[in-house]
Structures are given as C-alpha cells and as structure tokens.
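Entry 14. Ran structure prediction on the chain below.
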Amino acid sequence: MAQARSGRPSTGVREALLKATEEALGEAGLALSTKEIARRAGVAESSIFYHFGDRLGLLQAVIGLHLPAFADATAVLGAPEGAAGPASGTAAGAAGTATAPGAAEADPGAELEADLAALLARLERFYRRIMPILGAVQSDAQLRGLLAERGGEVGPHLALGAVADAIRARQATGRLPAALDPSAAALLLVGAAHQRALHAHLLGEAAARFLPPVATVACTLARAFR
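Output, structure tokens:
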C-alpha cells in the first residue's frame, strides 16, 4: 500500500487529490475510498467534498484531465484533406503515416480509412487512460445512482455526441454521405475503441491475440460508411 504523504501537498490540494485518485484506482482496483484518497494526498477527507462536491464530481475532474486527448481524437474527422494529425495516430494503423497531400483526390476511400484508423487509435488510448474510472462507477451503486440523478449532464453518452458532431462536420464538407446516420456511426466507432481498451485493460498484451488490428477495423467501417 502506498505511504501517505506528510504535510500539505506542494502542488495544491485539488491537484494532489486528482493525482491520488488516479493512483488509488490504478493500484487498488475498483473501490473509490475517499479516506484512502485523502490519505494518499496528505489532506483532510473533507477537502474532496469542498473541491469536487461528491465522489462523482471527483471522477469527473479526473476524466477532465484526459479530455484534451479525446478532443484530439475527434478533431481527426474534421481535419482538412491531407491533415489527419500527428503521425502517431494515423493511417495504416501501426505504420503511423499521415494521409499524403493529394492522396484523397486519388482515392477518397483511402483518406477516410486513414482518418478512421487515427480516430480509433486515439479513442482507444483515451479509454485506456480512464478505464479504472469507468470500472469504479460500474461497480459502485451509489456512484451509478449519482450519475442517473444528473439527468444526462454527465455520462458516457457525451462521448457519442461529440463523435457524432465530428461526423456531421465531415458530412458538411461532402466527405461523408449525407445518408450516413451520425449517431449510429459514432456508436460503432466509440464501441470499437472502448472494447479494444477494455480487452487491453483486462488481458494486457494478450489482448492483441484476440482482436483485429485497428487498420482492419477502420477498413471495415470505412466501407460501411461510404
């Protein structure tokens, strides 16, 4: 078990609590104990409720730390042709090469496939980072109750909405057919990324033995989306 930090955290109470929460969930598993988090952060347990309102608010704030990665993922779909983003998340899956300028004119399907591969890879990384948080909510009846009480203010459906909006933006440029249902397409993309992250979280490196490569998933979805 991690040792409690002595004295007030040097980086600020809020930051220390967020760090301690990620550490606790990553090391101890599903249980979200405010006493343990406060002990790790070296602050009073009441500080959690002062800064975040309740345990769900704390988890929201931790997820917020990773939202730039999610925004980076959804931006891929709205990127202009030939600008799929950093090479680490793009086309050809593990090859990591961005869509070459002019390539989309020759083969629009190749551009779509590359961008979907980039999106899936980045979404998977995002879900891998927050998987312990999702597990904490799923395993805790009180947290699930708090989530339901928020009436849609927070929850996994927000990710679907953001991806659907990115799909609509791409449709507006004529690079996806108008007949494609954005919500259904978003569910397929987010579901695929989430499942890949879940398998990796539960099985580690062995997950790759049971899952198709990102490039294969992107190719299949690109054909369905055209």
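The radius of gyration is 20 Å. Will compare against last week's run tomorrow.
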